[in-house]
Amino acid sequence: PPAPLPFDIPIFETSMNPDSTPRSSHLLQRTMMTGICSMVPVPFLDDLLIKKTRKGLVHRILRDHSLNIPVSELETYYAGFSRGCLVRAIGLVFTIIKKVLRKILRTVFFFLAIRRATLEMAETYLLGRTLNRCIQSGFFDGDRLEVKDVEAMRTAFETANRRSDLRIVAGAMRSAWVSIAGDRSVVRRLVQRFRKDAQSVEDDELQPADLSQPEQEVLEKGEAVLEEKLEKSGVKEFLHSFDARFDKALTEAQIESR
């Protein structure tokens, strides 16, 4: 079975090459992109864009680690468990109603949209960070990955997420979002760009390609603030406690899957 995960893997390390330096820019960038995608005022399209953003992040992490694992094999990890056809059909009606109502409420009460954006950003960041830890710990056996291992990762992530008070890390995400909120016209253009690009991106991934200089600068400003906030002692303590909960839950999930 895969080895248990150590607790002290560097947060931003994304390469197995010992001669390389830690890189975090794509993780921070996709985290900021998630917040922007969540502001798309169209039910379901916002969720689709967030999924594409996370898929692009997973693809980049696998490439950074020189792993030839198809990103589709990790869809359960970054997108969650799929449900049966009947359950999906029944749930779809309620989901449509709920999403439309939420979009209306978020339009009227902007602070609800900000709250959702920060929580989605936190999840993207934790997904990418946790995937890095799993790869660096030797959880993956080369380019091989079994379905039960991916399901164990997702189960452990959901368990750790459910047992965590995300307000601390969400606060860091909120600071990053507020730092770019003043550039409303640029953020609005980014929202429209991601919405349009979603129609033509290959492999169903959302990539920050061909951004204008103002758009790139806004993203980089948010990334800089986010990186600074993630270095705060309270956030670091939260991340280490999240790691411990994930590691424990992963071990339990692996035992149950045998």
SSE topology string? HHHHHHHHHH
What would you report as the Rg, rounded to the nearest angstrom? 18 Å
Number of helices: 10
- Strand portion, in percent? under 5%
Residue runs with pLDDT of under 50 for 5 or more positions: 1-23, 84-92
Short description:
With 258 residues, this protein is an all-alpha fold.
Q: What does this protein structure show overall?
A:
With 258 residues, the chain is mainly alpha-helical. 69% of the residues lie in helices and 0% in strands. It has ten helices and no strands. The chain has helices at residues 25-37, 45-64, 75-79, 85-108, 110-136, 147-162, 167-181, 184-197, 213-230, 233-257. The N and C termini lie close together (9 Å). Residues 1-23 and 84-92 have low confidence and may be disordered.
